């Protein structure tokens, strides 16, 4: 370990529970129950129940309560401005991923600043606050789509493809597989921006989180329950229905008239994945940075060290080496591949 790595390790370390800050005695997005956890956002592979104390944005705390119940932790603290925890200062900054998502900056006057991005996106997302670049000495970045092949198209163009399909097949329902938190609400906002003022039908698994977004000032328009009673099947012809991908494995999807199975995910750029899922209309819409935005972020922030986690590490580590940048993989365990 070099002297620079030794200094950095006093600020952040990897442990079986996850990323640990010894000078503040807390973990960031731990995969096992710990005494004190700082959480970047509400997706299940980052936000787990059972910690002694949790600090997160107020929206992430609300989302965790919706998903896990009010007693998901013994103590909760909303992040509001810089906080001193032990020997480090901690602050939360918008990540542009989903509602309430944040990067966590950890600073020590003699060591410098580390920023843990969690999941983040630099594409405009009307359902959450935009990504905020935070200067840092150590950047801990996700690498979900860290291959040069991943270059996400304009989401507006993908929505245009969807609406063209709806117009071309007015007798069929379009069923879109979408992650219940973040992606569903973003799709609704994109549809509204594209001029779709008709009702959007949602699976019951999306209802509570959509309702919460509305309370936070996110206008989702006319949402209706995607339930069919006898004799109503034809009422869904030409309609758009959002549901979690798991719903398509059941008979639920076949209740709709000749459904066009769609799926909204950055992984839909991989045709084999679309075929495996039986997707007729893949929509390449992601809430993560693609290769150009990942490399742009590293270049703009120009950290002394880049630590890579959550995904495909080798290519970005190699890119950093070719750019003369210090980088290393963290290989944290317990983080699932999100359908985003």
UniProtKB/TrEMBL annotation:
Q: Name one GO molecular function term.
A: RNA endonuclease activity
Q: Which InterPro entries match?
A: MBL (IPR050698), RibonucZ/Hydroxyglut_hydro (IPR036866), Xnuc_lig_assoc (IPR026360)
Highest taxon above the source species: Bacteria
What is the name of this protein?
Putative mRNA 3-end processing factor
Q: Which species is this UniProt entry from? A: Pseudorhodobacter antarcticus
């Amino acid at each position: 370990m070099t002297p620079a790595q030794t200094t950095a390790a006093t600020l952040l370390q990897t442990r079986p529970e996850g990323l640990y800050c010894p000078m503040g005695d807390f973990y960031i997005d731990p995969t096992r129950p710990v005494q004190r956890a700082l959480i970047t956002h509400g997706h299940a592979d980052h936000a787990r129940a059972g910690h002694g104390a949790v600090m997160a944005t107020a929206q992430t705390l609300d989302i965790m309560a919706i998903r896990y119940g009010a007693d998901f932790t013994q103590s909760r603290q909303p992040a509001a401005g810089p906080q001193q925890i032990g020997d480090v200062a901690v602050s939360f900054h918008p990540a542009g991923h989903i509602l309430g998502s944040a990067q966590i900056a950890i600073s020590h006057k003699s060591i410098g600043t580390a920023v843990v991005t969690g999941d983040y996106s630099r594409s405009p997302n009307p359902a959450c606050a935009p990504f905020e670049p935070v200067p840092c000495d150590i950047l801990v970045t996700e690498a979900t789509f860290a291959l040069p092949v991943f270059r996400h198209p304009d989401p507006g163009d993908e929505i245009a493809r969807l609406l063209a399909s709806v117009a071309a097949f007015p007798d069929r329902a379009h069923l879109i597989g979408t992650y219940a938190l973040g992606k569903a609400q973003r799709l609704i906002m994109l549809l509204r921006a594209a001029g779709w003022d008709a009702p959007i039908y949602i699976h019951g698994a999306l209802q509570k989180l959509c309702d919460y977004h509305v309370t936070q000032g996110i206008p989702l328009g006319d949402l209706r329950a995607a339930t069919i009673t006898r004799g109503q099947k034809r009422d869904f012809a030409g309609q758009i229905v959002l549901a979690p991908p798991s719903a398509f494995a059941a008979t639920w999807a076949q209740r709709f008239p000749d459904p066009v199975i769609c799926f909204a995910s950055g992984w839909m750029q991989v045709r084999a994945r679309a075929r495996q899922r039986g997707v007729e209309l893949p929509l390449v819409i992601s809430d993560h940075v693609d290769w150009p935005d990942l490399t742009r972020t590293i270049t703009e922030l120009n950290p002394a060290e880049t630590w890579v986690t959550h995904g495909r590490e080798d290519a970005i580590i190699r890119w950093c080496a070719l750019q003369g940048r210090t980088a290393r993989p963290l290989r944290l365990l317990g983080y699932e591949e999100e359908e985003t």
